[in-house]
Amino acid sequence: MARRRKGQLASGNFRVQVYDYTDDAGKRHYQSFTAPTRAEAEAQANDWREHRRQLKEAITVRVAVDHYIDLKAPVLSPSTVRGYRGCHRMYFSGSFGEKDLRQLKNTDIQLWISSLSKDGLSPKTVRNAAGLLTAALSFFLPDFRLRITLPAKKRLELYCPSLDDIMTLYHSTGDLMLRCAILLGSIGAMRRGEICALEYDDLEGDRLSIRKAYVLSDSREWVLKAPKTYSSYRTILLPPFVLGAILALPEPHSGRIITITPDRLSGRFQRALADSGLPHFRFHDLRHFGASMLAGFGDRYVEAYGGWEAGSDVMKRNYQTLIDSEKDKVKREMADMFQSRLSTYATQNATRD
Prior knowledge:
The chain has helices at residues 38-50, 61-72, 78-91, 94-97, 106-118, 123-140, 163-172, 176-186, 192-197, 240-247, 262-276, 285-293, 299-306, 313-319, 324-352, and strands at residues 14-22, 28-35, 203-204, 207-210, 213-216, 222-225, 234-237. It is mainly α.
């Protein structure tokens, strides 16, 4: 009978043990790696050493993400926490969520990402879930080196209402509060949560200061919070037409200007839009109009006016789209300008001849 070699099990496989940690009772704990050959077992052990996890206790992926959300919740906006909770509930259950964080490998994460994509989730949703996992891993396992491939981003075709659309909608409704909100969302490039948080005290002459917003909490209640980002604190100058719409609201002019929640505002907006016969678009798309109309003034001006962070990719990617009707107008003006100059040039050359 052949003698078993060191580390060889009765099955013929080889086992390599590596020291992990010593618990509070003084007991030493080891990680065990088994493979058909000693070289394979040692390769697994070396791989574990290279990515050694400094966690003394077993913790699953699902629990780690949950702990990360709990730790970050006090310094994150309610809407961000609500999004994290939903993502955790939907995508961190099942076998992947139960994996021990100390044993997690890039292949496990890639299989999870690929599974989410196969289930029909949009690239944005998959990327958001992966982003939450990455944040949790960087918190619990700062030395973990993530090597994964995410689904390619899809370019969204966002509808940008024209000035004609906005004024048609404005005149089609007799709801003075909605009229005011439509102008603030488009001309003012304001978010609906910012609009619903406005108070008459924020208005000084034609200057409107934006310094708070209503956001939906984890318990799905609207709460008043500081603006979304530091850049969201801003003051805008209101054109007389917009200021007149505010002053046309019923008195007394004190407290909140728009006295309904963002949800109710969206509901009123969609009903008015349906009655107007205009193409469907969201209340938030009014903000696209405001940013697009300012595109010619340069990024810095647009960012300051709309409350985007400096160098914001979101603003450039989603908002700075030229309105179709305005684009055609610019094309015609350019064609006319070139024609005029070419005609002048041709006339001058003909005179010389």
